[in-house]
Amino acid sequence: MTPFIVTFIIVVFSINVAAGGQLKDACSSQADCDAGLECSKNKCLIPYRSPMECVTGWDCVTGVSCHYEAGQPGRCLVDHRCPANGVCTKLGTECDEDGVCGYKENEVCYGPCKTGLVCVKTRCQRP
């Protein structure tokens, strides 16, 4: 195995162990996840405003981002989920099929892009 692959495996395993061993494990319902985690898009992830630490936005439930402040560990504190009325309040965003207020095509990606778009050179674009 190459050093990169070994390092990658160690890092991913370390993140999983740090989160109680079940972060990102497959789930079909809340019962499949350890206490403190939430089943989101078939993965056990950290819920919004949880005291648990995150490393990336992929550690947080769908529509929530990992936020770092003043050198402190990351926490899932930035909520991009659609409000109950389905109308997003940030300019250039709209509620997508994943229930996330995503930035539309060609908008500057200050947060997540709508489903089907990716952030390329600061703009939400089709892959």
Notes on the structure:
Residues 1-20 form the signal peptide. This is Ubs_16 putative toxin. It comes from Unedogemmula bisaya. With 127 residues, the chain is an alpha+beta fold. It has two domains: 3-78, no CATH class; 80-127, no CATH class. The protein has one helix at 3-18, and strands spanning 38-40, 43-45, 64-67, 75-79, 93-95, 101-103, 118-120, 123-125. Strands 1-2 form a two-stranded antiparallel ribbon. Strands 3-4 form a two-stranded antiparallel ribbon. Strands 5-6 form a two-stranded antiparallel ribbon. A hairpin with a 2-residue loop joins strand 1 (38-40) and strand 2 (43-45). The longest helix is centred in the first third of the chain and has 16 residues, at 3-18. The two termini are 31 Å apart. The model is unreliable at 3-20 (pLDDT under 50).
Approximate strand percentage: 15-25%
Q: Could you estimate the helical fraction of the residues in percent?
A: 10-25%
Count of helical stretches = 1
User: Into how many domains do the coordinates divide?
Assistant: 2
Note the run of SSEs as H and E. Answer: HEEEEEEEE
Strand numbers in spatial order across the main sheet: 1-2
Low-confidence stretches: 3-20
